[in-house]
Design a protein that fits this description.
Elements lengths: L1 H7 L2 E5 L5 E5 L3 H16 L7 H8 L4 H28 L7 H15 L1 H23 L11
Helix pairs in contact: 4-5, 4-6
Protein backbone atom coordinates (compact mmCIF):
# COMPACT_ATOMS: atom_id res chain seq x y z
CA UNK A 1 0.00 0.00 0.00
CA UNK A 2 2.84 2.39 0.82
CA UNK A 3 4.55 1.56 -2.47
CA UNK A 4 1.34 2.39 -4.37
CA UNK A 5 0.92 5.65 -2.45
CA UNK A 6 4.51 6.64 -3.23
CA UNK A 7 4.05 5.80 -6.93
CA UNK A 8 0.87 7.89 -7.03
CA UNK A 9 2.96 10.84 -5.81
CA UNK A 10 5.77 10.19 -8.32
CA UNK A 11 8.08 8.71 -5.74
CA UNK A 12 9.56 5.27 -5.13
CA UNK A 13 10.95 3.38 -2.18
CA UNK A 14 14.60 2.36 -2.23
CA UNK A 15 16.63 0.32 0.19
CA UNK A 16 20.17 1.55 0.82
CA UNK A 17 23.26 -0.58 1.53
CA UNK A 18 22.57 -0.63 5.28
CA UNK A 19 19.02 -1.89 4.72
CA UNK A 20 17.21 1.35 5.52
CA UNK A 21 14.26 2.20 3.30
CA UNK A 22 13.97 5.73 1.96
CA UNK A 23 11.73 7.66 -0.38
CA UNK A 24 13.30 9.03 -3.56
CA UNK A 25 12.02 10.87 -6.60
CA UNK A 26 11.34 8.44 -9.42
CA UNK A 27 13.14 9.55 -12.60
CA UNK A 28 10.46 8.21 -14.96
CA UNK A 29 8.74 10.99 -16.97
CA UNK A 30 5.30 9.84 -15.80
CA UNK A 31 6.49 10.08 -12.18
CA UNK A 32 7.75 13.62 -12.81
CA UNK A 33 4.34 14.60 -14.16
CA UNK A 34 2.72 13.14 -11.04
CA UNK A 35 5.04 15.17 -8.80
CA UNK A 36 4.46 18.37 -10.76
CA UNK A 37 0.73 18.15 -11.34
CA UNK A 38 -0.59 15.71 -8.74
CA UNK A 39 -4.26 14.85 -8.84
CA UNK A 40 -4.95 16.96 -11.94
CA UNK A 41 -2.65 14.70 -13.89
CA UNK A 42 -3.92 11.49 -12.30
CA UNK A 43 -7.60 12.32 -12.63
CA UNK A 44 -7.77 14.30 -15.88
CA UNK A 45 -4.44 13.84 -17.67
CA UNK A 46 -3.79 17.59 -17.62
CA UNK A 47 -1.17 19.73 -15.88
CA UNK A 48 -2.18 21.70 -12.82
CA UNK A 49 -3.84 24.88 -14.02
CA UNK A 50 -4.07 28.13 -12.08
CA UNK A 51 -7.26 28.44 -10.09
CA UNK A 52 -9.68 31.36 -10.44
CA UNK A 53 -7.98 33.38 -7.68
CA UNK A 54 -4.53 32.85 -9.19
CA UNK A 55 -5.81 33.83 -12.64
CA UNK A 56 -7.38 36.99 -11.23
CA UNK A 57 -4.05 38.02 -9.73
CA UNK A 58 -2.02 37.11 -12.81
CA UNK A 59 -4.37 38.78 -15.27
CA UNK A 60 -5.38 41.82 -13.23
CA UNK A 61 -3.00 44.20 -15.02
CA UNK A 62 -2.32 42.43 -18.29
CA UNK A 63 -3.59 43.85 -21.56
CA UNK A 64 -7.15 42.73 -22.25
CA UNK A 65 -6.29 40.68 -25.34
CA UNK A 66 -3.67 38.70 -23.41
CA UNK A 67 -6.01 38.08 -20.49
CA UNK A 68 -8.80 36.97 -22.81
CA UNK A 69 -6.50 34.58 -24.68
CA UNK A 70 -5.17 32.97 -21.49
CA UNK A 71 -8.59 32.77 -19.89
CA UNK A 72 -10.09 31.26 -23.04
CA UNK A 73 -7.33 28.66 -23.37
CA UNK A 74 -7.71 27.72 -19.71
CA UNK A 75 -11.49 27.38 -20.02
CA UNK A 76 -11.18 25.10 -23.05
CA UNK A 77 -8.78 22.76 -21.25
CA UNK A 78 -11.03 22.68 -18.18
CA UNK A 79 -14.10 21.93 -20.35
CA UNK A 80 -12.33 19.00 -22.00
CA UNK A 81 -11.08 17.68 -18.65
CA UNK A 82 -14.57 17.92 -17.16
CA UNK A 83 -15.92 16.03 -20.17
CA UNK A 84 -13.62 13.17 -19.21
CA UNK A 85 -15.09 13.13 -15.71
CA UNK A 86 -18.65 13.24 -16.98
CA UNK A 87 -17.97 10.40 -19.42
CA UNK A 88 -16.60 8.27 -16.58
CA UNK A 89 -19.73 8.93 -14.53
CA UNK A 90 -21.94 7.88 -17.42
CA UNK A 91 -19.94 4.72 -18.04
CA UNK A 92 -20.59 3.64 -14.44
CA UNK A 93 -24.39 3.68 -14.76
CA UNK A 94 -26.35 0.54 -15.42
CA UNK A 95 -29.29 1.57 -17.57
CA UNK A 96 -30.11 1.98 -21.22
CA UNK A 97 -29.21 5.35 -22.63
CA UNK A 98 -31.64 7.50 -24.54
CA UNK A 99 -30.67 8.83 -27.94
CA UNK A 100 -30.16 12.27 -26.33
CA UNK A 101 -27.77 10.74 -23.78
CA UNK A 102 -25.86 8.96 -26.55
CA UNK A 103 -25.58 12.25 -28.44
CA UNK A 104 -24.36 13.99 -25.27
CA UNK A 105 -21.81 11.23 -24.68
CA UNK A 106 -20.56 11.60 -28.25
CA UNK A 107 -20.21 15.37 -27.70
CA UNK A 108 -18.28 14.77 -24.47
CA UNK A 109 -16.12 12.20 -26.22
CA UNK A 110 -15.29 14.71 -28.97
CA UNK A 111 -14.28 17.25 -26.30
CA UNK A 112 -12.09 14.64 -24.62
CA UNK A 113 -10.51 13.65 -27.94
CA UNK A 114 -9.55 17.30 -28.51
CA UNK A 115 -7.71 17.57 -25.19
CA UNK A 116 -4.18 17.20 -26.59
CA UNK A 117 -4.52 20.02 -29.15
CA UNK A 118 -6.18 22.18 -26.47
CA UNK A 119 -3.24 21.57 -24.14
CA UNK A 120 -0.86 22.51 -26.95
CA UNK A 121 -2.78 25.74 -27.56
CA UNK A 122 -2.81 26.46 -23.81
CA UNK A 123 0.98 25.98 -23.65
CA UNK A 124 1.43 28.22 -26.71
CA UNK A 125 -0.81 30.91 -25.19
CA UNK A 126 1.09 30.84 -21.90
CA UNK A 127 4.49 30.90 -23.61
CA UNK A 128 3.61 33.77 -25.95
CA UNK A 129 1.87 35.76 -23.19
CA UNK A 130 4.48 35.30 -20.50
CA UNK A 131 6.51 38.47 -21.27
CA UNK A 132 3.38 40.63 -21.05
CA UNK A 133 2.18 38.91 -17.86
CA UNK A 134 5.60 39.35 -16.26
CA UNK A 135 5.73 42.98 -17.30
CA UNK A 136 2.25 43.56 -15.86
CA UNK A 137 3.20 41.85 -12.60
CA UNK A 138 6.33 43.99 -12.43
CA UNK A 139 4.21 47.10 -12.87
CA UNK A 140 5.42 47.98 -16.34
CA UNK A 141 3.84 47.53 -19.75
CA UNK A 142 5.48 45.56 -22.50
CA UNK A 143 6.16 47.72 -25.57
CA UNK A 144 3.45 47.05 -28.13
CA UNK A 145 5.16 48.58 -31.13
CA UNK A 146 2.15 50.86 -31.59
CA UNK A 147 2.04 54.60 -31.17
CA UNK A 148 -0.22 55.10 -28.16
Amino acid sequence: MVTDLAARAGLSLRQNASGDVGVVEDADPEARRRRLWGDDWLQFGVPALPGPDELDVLLAHTPDEIGERLLGATREVVRAAMATTRMSEWEDVDWSWTSEQMDEYDRLSALHDGLTPLLAEYARAVTESLPAVRAACDGRREPTGRAD
